[in-house]
Write a structure and sequence with these properties.
The chain has about 220 residues and is of the alpha/beta class. The protein has a single domain, classed as Uracil-DNA glycosylase-like domain (Uracil-DNA Glycosylase, subunit E), CATH 3.40.470.10. The protein is about 40% helix and about 15% strand. The protein has a five-stranded mixed beta sheet with strand order 2-1-5-7-6, with helices on both faces. Strands 3-4 form a two-stranded antiparallel sheet. Helix 3 crosses helix 8. The radius of gyration is 17 Å and the shape is globular.
């Protein structure tokens, strides 16, 4: 694309807002003022990752949901509660994980009575724009394993050709942001909640099985 045809969306990036040499607390404070893409305009607040530097496992989801946006914390809504239950059942303590999202602001549309806020998937440009925050989190936490929750997180880390159904439950080794990483893709817990009633238990057991693979990898 020539400079004359470059639109504003092609210049979306959080990079100018990410402070050099900052720890997690300083990154979190800086992220609160991020204006790297338009998603900040409608979101209530930035939802940064939570957990300790040095956590052995990092869980990367798509973006905050309605409850996360209101509370300013990741994975505190229904999908987060289901994820905590699945982690515990798989032998992973949720308190020992660092949890974050590929995109730090809630993207939504309004629909129905009362104009409820309905989740809308972030675009590849928006995910890419938010990439410097995720790269900074990875560099500080240095997890032994990254659990990739769903397609958006997978594309953010592994490229636009990622398909969760092709590699879920499989341990991968890839170079991510210049460093070798071990990753395990699985579905996002929200997909379990969206499954039809007759399919939900099987979908949940599939998530737990993938997380058990992650637990075994960390035990080695």
């Amino acid at each position: 694309m020539s400079p004359s045809s470059t639109g504003p969306e092609d210049r979306y990036t959080a990079a100018p807002f990410v402070p050099d040499g900052a720890g997690l607390d300083a990154l979190r404070r800086a992220a609160a003022g991020c204006r790297g893409c338009p998603l900040h305009r409608d979101a209530t607040r930035t939802v940064f990752g939570e957990g300790e530097a040095g956590a052995r496992v990092m869980l990367v989801g798509e973006q905050p949901g309605d409850q996360e946006d209101r509370q300013g914390r990741p994975f505190v809504g229904p999908a987060g509660r289901l994820l905590d239950r699945a982690l515990a059942e798989a032998g992973l303590d949720p308190a020992d994980a660092y949890v974050t999202n590929a995109v730090k602001h809630f993207k939504f549309t309004r629909s129905g009575p009362g104009k409820r806020r309905i989740h809308k998937a972030p675009s590849l440009r928006e995910t890419t724009a938010c990439g410097p925050w995720l790269a900074a989190e990875l560099a500080l936490v240095e997890p032994e394993l990254v659990v990739v929750l769903g397609a958006t997180a997978g594309k953010a880390l592994l490229g636009s050709s990622f398909r969760v159904g092709e590699v879920r439950g499989t341990l991968l080794e890839r170079e991510i942001h210049g460093r070798p990483r071990r990753l395990l893709p699985t579905v996002h817990p929200s997909s379990v909640l969206r499954a039809r009633d007759q399919d939900r238990e099987a979908a949940y057991e599939g998530l737990v099985a993938d997380l058990r693979t992650a637990a075994r990898a960390l035990a080695k």
